[in-house]
Write a structure and sequence with these properties.
The chain is α+β, with helices and mostly antiparallel strands. The protein contains 26 helices and 9 strands. The longest helix has 33 residues.
């Protein structure tokens, strides 16, 4: 059988990968990687950076790339057959990479490299990669012995299994819900959302309008549906997904959450930490859970007066203008949209007509080309869905990187938006220069038969955010795998380039390039942009507290041992401390909190607010020097994007700004100065 997962071609043959390819490919790649590990740790391989890269790096990079392709398909093109094959392979893959990270002989080789006289003459990126590898060996249990080491490995395997189950439950709960609304119930919902819901119902031979919990369907209903019962129905379904209160009890994530937390605290104890959060801080900019909680609570105290004012104004408006005297969570998006329309004389739906996907992409690519001296062009490639596009970045005739772009929501695709690596930049041991490849994934509304896909301004911001991650990965000039692109970057700094890119979406000079009315081709009028700008910080206090609530909850869960026994009680405490509007007793948002239970952000969700401080301060340089200032763009490129993880993030920030960050720009940007 010709197995595409064993191909050494530059790009994965995504369209050719079938579930039956997974088991034999993983078996062969595991065998090759184990043989490479045995060679690397034998006396035949000297304690030398290049020798280890040639003997072990090549095999494990190939294995990682193939498994990465499988994992990606599991996230964006999930089927029962693929899921079964993925889950069957997951334990063996997890076991190998756990053993690799905890291998005493390999750890000894790297320690020998670090202790050798020649270590001082290694390049700065290699020295940083070596430093991070030694740190990660310790965090991966390389210094554990006997039963402790075996237990640590068992925890890794079980945690991977639980994270996958959590993600599957959220996906299945989201995909599995449908409500067929009548024409009367759809009153107030935008025409394009009504049309899409009608088409979805007709495709199934059903009457009415098919409403789902996919965000491009869910959000317009919550924002615009005038029928309160419909909003309440969808809200309850959304916030009880994958919980004991959802409509499919077999997808309840309660037990998974409890076991994951218990295992994480046990893992931290084995490594000598008081709790999981302390262990997680080792690889971050922040020094301790206490420092993070102090940062979040300080920001909360600054935002709270603005949030209280936001809510008071919303309640007054809802009671007076909408006859909603008892404002509930399923009313807030609807009432907020009405208040924004009344106050600023525009709606999100009006703005949406100007942001067509083709125009937004053309404008985004123009910004990237101007600032970073590259050319972007679409290229042919095997993809996993007909809507996926593939592009390359070229500079001065040389390939810089490539990326896949998967924009639209569909069944079998994980909710949310993310960037992932296909491969990283690497000066390979055989002398070849490997260029980076990324996957950029969103979940926007699809185009219709006669119109291009339309994006809200929030969608545009999300797209720019993910491209920030992509540029961090693609524009690196570092040739060492461990610190190339986003690799090796502290988790609470990795959001700096992504949040930095969001700022372009609020510049008139940029907006003109991003907009073209779907019917008239006219650019967004300046008058409408001014209204958007005036409303930029609309309810920013409430939005800030919402992010802080998630962040404090995450940090306390992982900093307080025994938290698994009282997850809901802890969340209730955090809400009482942070939120200004009470959540209903049935709200189970933690059961779909994939970031921390299946997405790598455990004890790290605060990173969004932490990095927002950095990105706001970095953007303030462009505010002073000009959005398209070439010199400023080059400084940012050279000091932040190109260096990747080859030095601490704070050094990169200071190299760009000439000083340490401060909170002033963040507060100013959010209207809370």
């Amino acid at each position: 059988m010709n197995n595409p997962l064993l191909s050494t071609a530059a790009l994965p043959a995504f369209a050719s990968i079938k579930p039956e390819h997974i088991a034999p490919a993983i078996e062969q790649l595991l065998s090759e990687s184990r043989a490479a590990l045995a060679l690397a740790t034998s006396d035949a391989t000297t304690a030398d950076y290049d020798a280890l890269s040639a003997s072990l790096g090549v095999a494990t990079e190939r294995f990682g790339a193939s498994w990465g392709a499988v994992s990606h398909l599991n996230a964006v093109a999930n089927t029962p057959e693929l899921r079964e094959a993925y889950n069957a392979a997951l334990p063996a893959v997890t076991e190998f990479f756990t053993e690799l990270g905890a291998d005493e002989a390999l750890y000894a080789k790297y320690k020998a490299i670090a202790a050798a006289p020649g270590a001082a003459s290694l390049s700065a990126p290699r020295q940083q990669a070596l430093k991070l590898w030694l740190r990660d060996f310790v965090l991966s249990g390389a210094e554990l012995q006997g039963e402790a080491k075996a237990r640590f490995a068992a925890i890794q395997e079980r945690s991977a299994e639980l994270g996958q189950q959590f993600s599957e439950h959220v996906l299945d709960a989201t995909d599995g819900y449908a409500y067929y609304a009548s024409t009367e119930e759809m009153a107030g919902v935008p025409a394009d959302a009504i049309s899409a819901a009608l088409e979805a119902a007709k495709a199934e031979g059903k009457e009415g309008h098919k409403l789902t919990l996919h965000f491009p369907c869910y959000l317009p209903v919550m924002q615009y549906a005038s029928k309160r019962d419909l909003r309440a129905r969808l809200y309850r379904a959304y916030v009880t997904r994958a919980s004991e209160l959802g409509d499919k009890p077999e997808l309840d994530n309660s037990a998974i959450i409890e076991e994951l937390l218990r295992l994480r605290h046990e893992e931290a104890a084995l490594l000598g930490f008081a709790n999981f959060a302390e262990a997680a801080m080792v690889a971050k900019m922040a020094d301790s859970p206490t420092q993070v909680l102090d940062f979040l609570r300080d920001l909360s105290s600054r935002a709270r007066p603005f949030a209280e004012k936001d809510l008071a104004e919303l309640r007054e408006f809802a009671a007076k203008e909408l006859d909603l005297s008892d404002l509930q969570p399923w009313d807030t998006a609807y009432a907020s949209e009405k208040l924004k329309e009344a106050r600023y004389a525009f709606s999100d739906q009006e703005v949406r007509q100007y942001f067509t996907v083709p125009r937004v992409l053309a404008g985004l690519f123009d910004i990237i080309e101007r600032l970073f001296n590259v050319k972007i062009s679409e290229q042919p490639a095997e993809v996993w869905h007909e809507s996926v596009k593939f592009y390359q970045l070229v500079r001065d005739g040389a390939l810089v990187g490539q990326f896949y772009l998967d924009l639209y929501a569909r069944n079998g695709k994980r909710p949310g938006a993310w960037m992932d690596e296909v491969r990283s930049r690497w000066a390979r041991p055989d002398g070849a220069q490997q260029t980076p490849v990324a996957q950029l994934v969103c979940n926007f509304s699809s185009p219709t038969a006669d119109k291009p896909a339309l994006l809200s301004h929030d969608d545009v911001t999300t797209l720019f955010h993910e491209f920030g991650h992509g540029l961090h990965h693609l524009l690196t000039q570092v040739d060492e795998l461990g610190v190339s692109g986003i690799s090796g970057v502290e988790w609470d700094a990795v959001e700096l380039p992504s949040q930095f890119m969001e700022n372009f979406c609020w510049e008139w000079e940029v907006i003109q390039k991003l907009t073209s009315h779907v019917d008239t081709d006219e650019a967004l009028p300046r008058e409408l942009f001014d209204k958007m700008t005036a409303a930029k910080n609309f309810q920013s206090g409430l939005q800030t507290l919402r992010q802080i609530e998630f962040s404090v909850f995450d940090m306390r869960l992982h900093a307080e041992t025994g938290s698994e026994a009282a997850v809901q009680a802890l969340l209730d405490q955090v809400r009482a401390e942070v939120a200004v509007m009470a959540a209903p007793a049935f709200n189970r948002s933690q059961h779909s909190f994939s970031h921390i239970f299946a997405g790598g952000y455990s004890a790290g969700y605060y990173s969004y607010k932490w990095a927002e401080l950095l990105s706001a301060d970095a953007w303030s340089a462009f505010e002073v020097e000009g959005v398209f200032n070439a010199a400023c763009g080059q400084r940012y490129l050279q000091n932040v994007l190109e260096v990747g993880g080859s030095r601490p993030a704070m050094e990169s920030f200071k190299a760009f700004r000439g000083r340490e960050p401060n909170i002033d720009a963040l507060l100013r940007h959010q209207g809370m100065a």
